[in-house]
Amino acid sequence: MGKTEPRKDCPLCPRLAKFRAANRKALPGYFNAPVPTFGGRDARLLIVGLAPGLHGANRTGRPFTGDWAGDLLYATLIKHDLARGAYRESADDGLELHECAITNAVRCVPPQNKPTPAEIRTCRPFLHALIGEMQQLRAVLALGKIAHDSVCDALGAKKSAHRFGHGKSYEIGKIALIASYHCSRYNTNTGVLTEAMFDAVVRQAKIAALHAL
């Protein structure tokens, strides 16, 4: 079993390491390190996003915390009792996940929020190790095509047989892989993803993970 989390000064992706160093100088109050998985390894549902946002998770040190995507994600998780407490865009807000964990396909913030294919591949062993360590895992909700494809690769599943599409669900061994459009402000503003659509896909993932309404 490999490591599930990269070290604080992970050197594996030179471009991302350089960007991280520049951000530590420009934004010294930010987390500015690989963002660790949020939630317990005993969770039955894993949510996988793309990468930390510069002024979101890269600032706060917690996935999807501090930007619009987090506003929608955590509100929806609270509604479905997959998170408990109050979300306040801060890693110390006391919010707790229930039967759920959240991570990213790429753990470091990339320039323009666009990791390269090589960076996605380089970070994938952490995702593979995380999935392998989560012995109770029954469902993965992938937010966006990059996350979906990275999960397929981590699970050893052919992407050609598991194509991305919002609401699509695949059984890969004991794990249900469910795809969703990313809950980004761009997608919600353009109507690609509505709050109702996102609510429905989170409910779908919860049912797959817990086998109950």
Can you give a write-up of this model?
The termini are far apart. The chain is of the alpha/beta class and 213 residues long. The chain is globular and about 45 Å long. Helix 3 (68-79) crosses helix 7 and helix 4 packs across helix 5 (145-155). The protein is built from 7 helices and 7 strands. The strands form 2 sheets. Strands 4-1-5-7-6 form a 5-stranded mixed sheet, sandwiched between helices. Strands 2-3 form a two-stranded antiparallel ribbon. It has helices at residues 14-26, 57-60, 68-79, 117-133, 145-155, 185-189, 195-210, and strands at residues 45-49, 83-84, 96-97, 100-104, 139-143, 169-172, 175-180.
SSE inventory with pairings:
Layout (H helix, E strand, L loop, with lengths): L13 H13 L18 E5 L7 H4 L7 H12 L3 E2 L11 E2 L2 E5 L12 H17 L5 E5 L1 H11 L13 E4 L2 E6 L4 H5 L5 H16 L3
Parallel strand pairs: 1-4, 1-5, 5-7
Antiparallel strand pairs: 2-3, 6-7
User: Based on CA inertia axes, which overall geometry fits?
Assistant: globular
The portion of residues forming beta strands comes to 5-15%
Low-confidence stretches: none
H/E element sequence: HEHHEEEHEHEEHH
Rg, Cα atoms, Å: 16 Å
Helix proportion of residues, in percent? 25-40%
Structural class: alpha/beta
Largest sheet: 5 strands, mixed
* First-residue to last-residue Cα separation: 33 Å
The averaged pLDDT comes out at 96
Q: List the strand order in the largest sheet.
A: 4-1-5-7-6
Number of strands: 7
Number of helical segments with 4 or more residues: 7
